[in-house]
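Friendly challenge for the regulars: who can give me the structure tokens for this chain first? No prize, just bragging rights.
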Amino acid sequence: MSEGAPQRFEILPSLLALALPVLAGLGYLFAYGAPQSHLLINGGALALGLVWIVVGPRLSNLRSVRIVGALAILLLALPLATGPNIEGVARWIPLGPFQLHSGALAVPLLAGAAVLDRDYTPVWLLSAVFLAMVQPDAGALFAITGLSIGLYFAKPDWKPGVVAMAAFLAALYAHLRAVLPPQPFVERVLAELILTSPLLAFALFLSLLASFFLILRNTAQPLAVKAALAGTFAGFSLVALMSSYPSILIGYGASPIIGLALALGIRWRTQ
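First reply, four minutes later:
Bragging rights claimed.
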């Protein structure tokens, strides 16, 4: 077997973790008559994400990790400068005709950078908590909570535990302060489908569950990164079940697909 063959096999869980829920979501969008643009955007984001996972770089030193962490914080802060501001909420990055959800792009990247940059782990995460609370974005804050819990279980330490509590309290504040009306095919996908098509809802739920375990089983990543990224994924998914927040990967929206792909495509190993 060639040297490249084991490497290609190693990234298979990452490819499947992204593809399974997105393909299941495309089936849902098609079956329920979503606009064709929704299918094209999600499908295009999936194609780009799979390519990135195959060709993504290996971070060889701590400086590279810190550059990624700084980029994630910048992405999270950008909506506060650019808008748009909707009913006091600013959590989107304008990109031509598209609006990208900053939390869905940034928090998965933080799941790698904050874990490996041990000297500044609390700084990265607490900065993200503050920015997400100001936006306010309960979805991103629940994701940071899940990230911190995953990191705590992988490497028990009081600091991720404190961040998890701070992020959870901030998420409750953000949720009480700003919940926007649900958008068709974006929010409350499982909550609505379980009433009209429970089998489809169950299939979509299984695709998300499979993605969660594939992230945990990803041999291409260190244990702490896998745990933090799986916690991030769980946080985004759980808040979508509880309230009107985007149903990541299975609903319409390129940002969660791109954000997860960016994190899965990077080989989070440093010398």
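DSSP finds twelve helices and two strands in the chain. Confidence is low (pLDDT under 50) at residues 1-6. Your move, everyone else.
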